[in-house]
Amino acid sequence: MSGLHELVRASAERDRSAPALSHGADTLDYAELWRRVTACAAGLRADGLASGDRVAVYMEKRPQAVVSIFGTSAAGGAFVPVNPLLKPAQVSHILEHSGARVLVTTRDRLEALSGVLPECPELERTVLAEELPGPGSGPAAEPVGRADDELAAILYTSGSTGLPKGVALSHRNLLAGAESVCEYLDISASDRLLAVLPLSFDAGLSQLTTAFRAGAHAVLLEYLLPGEVVRACVEHRITGLTGVPPLWIQLAEREWPPEAVESVRYIANTGGRMPRPTLARLRAIFPAADVFLMYGLTEAFRSTYLDPSEVDARPDSIGKAIPGAEVLVVREDGSECEPGEEGELIHLGALVAMGYWRDPEASAERFRPASAASSAERAVWTGDRAVRDEQGFLYFVGRADEMIKTSGYRVSPTEIEEAARATGLVSDAVALGVADARLGQRVVLVASPVRGARLDSEALLKRLRAELPTYMVPSSVVTREEMPRSPNGKLDRALLRSQLVTT
């Protein structure tokens, strides 16, 4: 098999009439989905899309987004899914940095971007969702042959500093990930997976790739309230549900009728540690379902999972490596740590990404040989600290950098700080993550006012809500007239964090 789109073709050839994708009251079978994918590819090629060209997809979860993603693959391009929660400034950065030649979006979103699109010189064409192939779609195109190591997608994820980095993924990366997850979750054509996570998030995209790999039924849901997830489980007889801790906390607080629970055979958590009380409540709600606790990062898709049989014995463990991957805890020189010795997690194997798009320095720092730990094979050094026990189970200790993990997202504090400074209301700012039972971490902004003025926290938060996605907006602002600095002149984040914890 070559090319991510071949997942859809293979399932269509096995069972043309099997349900592939649902959204609201509409369901596409595999034959219809494949027709739309190939018709989309034909349109992109007719418009001049060349092999390797990037196609940005900026819309909420709907069939047109899925058709655009897999149609781009079939046309020889690389898709760039853009989180629909992002505001124009963040979208502009992704479009400009990725060098997207085509933008597929909705009319309303296109209007909102009108002020920033001139900053994207490589963007040549926009395609509205309404223009994409629908029922009885037009001429199809024979998919372009794709090599395993060819660029398939760029997923943007926040780095420890600055604007989001683009993680370049090959077809091999995505196909190996789908194969691995299908294996350990035992996904089959009889499954119905509820896709509630953003398609720009690796775990959200995985709901599509694993479903299509198995010939299963994927159900798209853009929910506003957790009750909508419960109703979708009833309506579609969902068998598999993957979420992040903030969603699971909300779902654990809901009343689940028997008809919403009886079909669910597994639930899976990613994007942060599941709080123990939430885990206990979910196990009471879904007594017959297997619980999979997972760990991963965009640079290697998925790294570990905890076998459901081990959840009672070691609920704080992130488990062991997923099929097809090798995950180690190593010292700075790459030699493997002894059991109980803290070190850095590194990931080797087919799921290790190609690197950071247009950022060779960052790629060289993060993607480098595993050295004495295993072999000369290139690994991704995660920056996460962990320990391994005598039985080989892994335990997450903490992040080596200053990333904030909130609502299942990795957030760069620098991006929040730059937005705060841009308001003109602060002279300096530091964004910190503070432990929160619901969010994993909540964002607290420590800010100093401009000289001679009083800091209006509410006015600052109002401005930030207009500029940043909801999950990046600080929960509170702490005013400091003077910021503590380290001997080398940098802001002393460690001191600020310790002061927040003790106050």
Brief account:
The protein is α/β, with parallel strands linked by helices. The termini are far apart.
The biggest beta sheet reads:
9 strands, mixed
Structural class: alpha/beta
CATH architecture of one domain: 3-Layer(aba) Sandwich
Beta-strand content: 25-35%
What does this 3D model show about the protein?
There is one protein chain. This protein is α/β, with parallel strands linked by helices and 503 residues long. Among the domains are: 1-170, Rossmann fold (3-Layer(aba) Sandwich), CATH 3.40.50.980; 322-399, Roll (Luciferase, domain 3), CATH 2.30.38.10; 404-502, 2-Layer Sandwich (GMP Synthetase, Chain A, domain 3). Helix content is 31%, strand content 26%. The chain is built from 15 helices and 26 strands. The strands form six sheets. It has a nine-stranded mixed β-sheet, with helices on both faces. A hairpin with a 2-residue loop joins strand 22 (404-406) and strand 23. Helix 1 (6-14) packs antiparallel against helix 2 (30-46) and helix 9 packs across helix 11. The radius of gyration is 23 Å and the shape is globular. 52% of the residues are buried. The model has no long low-confidence stretch (mean pLDDT 92).
List strands and helices in order, with pairings.
Layout: H1 6-14, E1 19-23, E2 26-29, H2 30-46, E3 54-58, H3 63-75, E4 78-81, H4 88-98, E5 102-105, H5 107-112, E6 125-128, E7 151-157, E8 165-170, H6 171-185, E9 192-195, H7 202-214, E10 217-220, H8 226-236, E11 240-243, H9 245-252, H10 258-261, E12 266-269, H11 276-285, E13 290-295, E14 304-306, E15 320-321, E16 325-330, E17 343-349, E18 355-356, H12 360-366, E19 367-369, E20 378-388, E21 394-399, E22 404-406, E23 409-411, H13 413-422, E24 426-436, E25 440-449, H14 457-467, E26 476-479, H15 493-502
Parallel strand pairs: 1-10, 3-4, 3-5, 5-6, 9-10, 9-11, 11-12, 12-13, 25-26
Antiparallel strand pairs: 1-2, 7-8, 8-18, 13-14, 14-15, 16-17, 17-20, 19-20, 20-21, 22-23, 24-25
Helix pairs in contact: 1-2, 1-7, 2-3, 6-7, 9-11
